[in-house]
Amino acid sequence: MAFPTTRARRLRRGETLRRMVRETRLSRDDLVLPLFVVEGRGVREGVRSMPGVDRFSVDRLADEAKHVRDLGIPAVILFGIPAHKDARGSGADDPNGIVQRAVAAVKSAAPELCVVTDVCLCEYTDHGHCGIVEGDEIRNDPSVERIAAAALSHARAGADIVAPSDMMDGRVAAIRRMLDSSGFDEIPILSYAAKYASAYYGPFREAAESAPAFGDRRSYQMDPPNRREALREMRLDLEEGADLLLVKPALPYLDVLADARREFDVPLAAYHVSGEYAMLMAAAERGWIDGPRATLEALVAIKRAGADLILTYAAKDVAARLGA
Ligand code: PBG
Ligand code: ZN
Fold this sequence. Notes:
Layout lengths: L14 H7 L9 E8 L5 E4 L2 E8 H13 L4 E7 L16 H12 L4 E6 L12 E3 L2 E3 H18 L3 E4 L6 H10 L9 E6 L6 H7 L19 H13 L3 E5 L5 H10 L4 E5 L1 H12 L5 H15 L3 E4 L2 H8 L2
Parallel strand pairs: 1-3, 1-4, 1-12, 4-5, 5-8, 9-10, 10-11, 11-12
Antiparallel strand pairs: 2-3, 6-7
Helix pairs in contact: 2-3, 3-4, 4-5, 7-8, 9-10
The structure holds ligand PBG and zinc ion.
């Protein structure tokens, strides 16, 4: 039945009706807040290209963790920025390293907050790559060993979920094996399975001091034009034992997210990355866009495409505005 019998606008008359027929609802339960942790004491410093995002020293983390919990956000993902970096990323699996101490601090301040740790080497290596470098090559298998060791040290520190973001082949299987053989068979792996070599990570690399000193990440992160390959990456990670899958960045890759939703039953996460956040904030600052509205619209779009969880730097603002 077509117009005039059918009128799509009938169900858009007034907020009550719109509320009743709304297909997607963003909730505080969907949010994961990234937190950057630095060495030192009493540090809470802004990140220039990410207004509203701070880097905390471990001693300032407890208050932030409680604040995040009180906002109703269920989870944080921690990124450690060590004082010392070397070729093998020794800090990544140091039992007394920056992220390990941060995990302990958050868990003791707010035990009900789910602590996810980003597992990678790039914040800990002096060359800034996500793996072990030989000549101008990023070597896969030696990197996987180091990454599995890092994941185990995070679990030992009390992490609830480990999230490898390096994109080396076989790292999910190696982490699963390592965790299972050390008594951590209940710790889930959130795999950054479809992570693209993206220009949108710029502000993060400033915050995490993790820009590669030479070359780029294209030999391990995915090529942006590839869509089918993302499904293959995700399938492989599931076979290796991933419990949750992540697509990153988010908005420019909603097609990938929608494909994944159709294809897999596991929970899906999307990372609304630093560059996506920075663009919104920059335009809002200039008065060129309504920042809060545009942010909500972006996150709803990510959820509509199929994400169960959204990692976003806007989590605190959004949670405060969404309420219970
Ligand atoms: C480290 C890592 C990166 C991000 C998350 N984990 C940067 C990179 O791969 O260069 C990016 C997050 C963001 O841009 O917000 N492997
Ligand atoms: Zn990395």
